[in-house]
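Lecture 7 notes: from sequence to structure.
We start with the chain below.
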Amino acid sequence: MNSVSAAEQSDASSLNPAMDVRPRYTLWQMALYFLKLGTIGFGGPVALVEYMRRDLVERREWIAEDDYKDGLALSQLAPGPLAAQLAIYLGFVHYRVIGAMPTGVAFVLPSFLMVIGLGWAYVRYGGDSGPSSSFWLGLARQWWMRSPGALSDTSA
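Predicted structure tokens for the same chain:
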């Protein structure tokens, strides 16, 4: 029975070469990277995915190109947030479930806290009244004035 489990283990490690390679980073470093990216990353999921490739594959060389491509493909196939799923997968590559959890939480936590803070401010300051509604009214006015035909003379 031990020979069967040893064969299964060798098959599992041959399917994922990352299991055989000792990571060049600690789990703490990966979690801090995703906390920073989740906080200051800008540009939507496609831009965040490219930041991950550039930083983790090219610059730091923490993740192999093949592992990155596998994670990107799986993230695109699954429904849900592309960048968050890729972050979770990249944490999984070397540290398995123990790595996936902190990288996923670190990446999503800043956005979660921002939404909670904005929701609190919205409720605390009475919803959409006062300076906030003036801001949106001014923004709508600027958009209207710049739209085609807004300045044309319709009185004739």
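Points to note: Helices lie at 2-15, 27-40, 44-59, 65-77, 82-124, 131-146. The CA atoms of residues 113 and 119 lie 10 Å apart.
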